[in-house]
Amino acid sequence: IFTAFAIVVALYTLFHLSIIQIMGVDNLLAQGASAFPLFLGVSEGTIFFIKTAIAYAFLISYINALYGVSMANITTMQGLVEKNIIPGGAFLSGLNSNFRPAKVIALYALIFLAVVTAVPSKIILVGFTGLGMVVTFMLTITSVAARFIQDKEYSKLFLTAFGYIACATLFYFSFLSIGATLSERLFNALPVGIGYIIGFVLYNFNK
Fold it and tell me: Could you tell me the end-to-end alpha-carbon distance of the chain, in angstroms, rounded to an integer?
């Protein structure tokens, strides 16, 4: 796992450093990474082909990520429904003829549509995602740290320290991205906080 992770990080680092080398920092900020074919010194036909290939690659990557995240969220929601943590579990928990949780999928689609419609900016939407991920990761890291302490494996606690640092960094930049002022950020982060409070109440009420 660590080897695969290191290879992915190395490839991503090499790619981004190459983009900076080809375009320069100012051009990268102004035009974005997708404009780098313009700086390759090739013909217009080649530039068009490369830009089209990049656009399709971005689209496929986006669809794949959306599908993967949606599947994970639907599976999580189905688990919560089966444990009666989400109200209406008896109604939502049924499967269709293809053994798929159609009602949970429909509920997830409605929530997804409501969030996408209500959030005014893609940047704020990404910030919401970051804030939600941070709390989830923090709970996971805390559980791992507690297990290390319980097993007296204190030498492994440094791994959780790196996790806390990464989560703090993600939280900081996600929080900055959802508003221009502190009051605006707190207001925009309010739905995420309310969601966690509702989840906590439902979990403790139905467990």
Answer: 34
